[in-house]
Specification:
single chain, five-stranded antiparallel beta sheet, 2 domains, four-stranded mixed beta sheet, 11 helices, Beta-lactamase, alpha+beta
């Protein structure tokens, strides 16, 4: 099997891969209107509605314990929020490349400069092993552009992909990927990153709202025979997915559009240097399951008040593993009586307060003081913070509000 053309895919023969069918016309209608913003509530979902920091930290912890390297990128289509880990790291794309390639093919068909019924003839140089059945057809076999696109997605047929790529041109496809926002686009290598592949899948969803050819491509992706990764642990909702594998480097990938009934989303999970198929697929399934569950029951930002006054820090506290974490710098900036200073000599954070007219000062060792570092920012559990500042603490669960009170204020 040739690696150079970037389409080689292996799938373990002892794994049963079940095909997911489209749930029906109403589901398809929901897909289009929710993504383009016509579904009631889509525009009012609000970028602050859901806090994805707890999800990201949970997945960071999980993936750090897995053998091999992993990266993922997630886009919530209702709010536009996204998050990821190693999402710009370079991974071997394998057959996930067929997503932007067939997207480009169908875009040209929709524009009228490529005839979907045009017959392309199979030649010896198109032949390749791996997935798909066209490798068993004789040279001279003819297939239409539309049929080759279907085979490239539904069956991940390498020969079909080779024939299409020759017809439209590798450079043209790569240029198109760059126009869509791709940052890892190498003209002679089949490499990508989770963020780029998620953007390509998002463009497929948008295309489905614009053109019957986009809906046809989305239908191919919904009906792929390879559903062993992102779709596998999820309930019976429509999922448009495309896997890619390159076992020689322990690479097993998947990119999917998951039509969650409340919050549809895009997810791309990539791996490399894993021990093998079983280990990688288990990890991808677990990431998929946790994200779906989070979309069902998401964490939301926590409000914070001080002596009855609502604080509006630039970054809100959030709950992670049952603990409310407060961003220290944002909190100090929102409270004039509190100051924060980094002591370079002692490698400590100094927190000073004059709240309630009572001076308080505490030095916090980032390695021991309960501080959590997330993307270079320091967070402190709210109970630790209240103790350091000599404040009383009340949790209003109904309104998801932390109330900090100076002793004797009566709030």
């Amino acid at each position: 099997m040739r690696k150079g053309n970037g389409f080689a895919v292996f799938v373990r023969g002892d794994v049963v891969l079940l095909n997911r069918r489209v749930v029906g016309f109403l589901a398809a209608v929901f897909v289009i209107v929710s993504v383009v913003g016509l579904w009631p509530g889509a525009a009012s979902a609000g970028t602050g509605e859901i806090d994805y920091r707890p999800l990201r930290e949970d997945l960071r912890d999980y993936l750090s314990m897995q053998a091999g390297d992993y990266g993922f990128f997630f886009i919530d289509l209702r709010s536009g929020k996204s998050t990821g880990i190693n999402d710009r790291a370079v991974f071997y794309a394998a057959s996930t490349f067929k997503v932007p390639m067939t997207l480009y093919v169908y875009r040209r068909v929709a524009a009228g400069d490529l005839n979907h019924a045009m017959l392309l003839e199979m030649r010896p140089e198109h032949m390749e092993g791996g997935t798909g059945s066209l490798q068993f057809s004789p040279a001279g076999t003819q297939k239409s552009v539309a049929e080759l696109a279907r085979c490239a997605i539904v069956y991940s047929d390498n020969v079909a992909a080779n024939m299409l790529l020759e017809r439209v041109g590798r450079k043209a496809v790569k240029d198109y990927m760059t126009r869509l926002g791709g940052t890892v686009v190498k003209y002679e290598e089949n490499e990508t990153c989770p963020r780029d592949m998620a953007l390509y899948m998002r463009e497929v969803v948008r295309f489905a709202g614009d053109s019957p050819w986009g809906e046809k491509l989305l239908d191919h992706l919904r009906n792929t025979i390879y559903t062993d990764r992102i779709p596998h642990p999820l309930p019976d909702v429509p999922i448009a997915a495309k896997i890619g594998s390159w076992p020689l480097t322990g690479t097993y990938n998947d990119v999917a559009y998951v039509e969650h009934p409340k919050r549809p989303y895009i997810l791309a999970v990539f791996s490399r240097h894993t021990p093998g198929y079983g280990s990688a697929v288990r990890a991808i399934r677990e990431v998929s399951r946790r994200i779906f569950d989070y979309q069902t029951n998401p964490a939301r930002p926590v409000e914070i008040t001080l002596n009855g006054r609502i604080l509006s820090p630039a970054e809100k506290p959030f709950v992670s593993r049952g603990v409310t974490l407060v961003p220290l710098r944002a909190f100090a900036d929102a409270v004039p009586q509190v100051s924060l200073r980094w002591d370079e000599s002692g490698r400590r954070i100094t927190l000073s307060s004059t709240l309630g007219g009572v001076p308080a000062k505490a030095a916090i060792d980032p390695g021991e003081g309960g501080i959590v570092i997330i993307e270079g920012c320091s967070y402190l559990p709210v109970r630790h913070l209240s103790r350091l500042l000599n404040l009383d603490l009340v949790w209003d669960g109904k309104n998801r509000t932390v109330k900090l009170l100076s002793p004797g204020t009566g709030y």
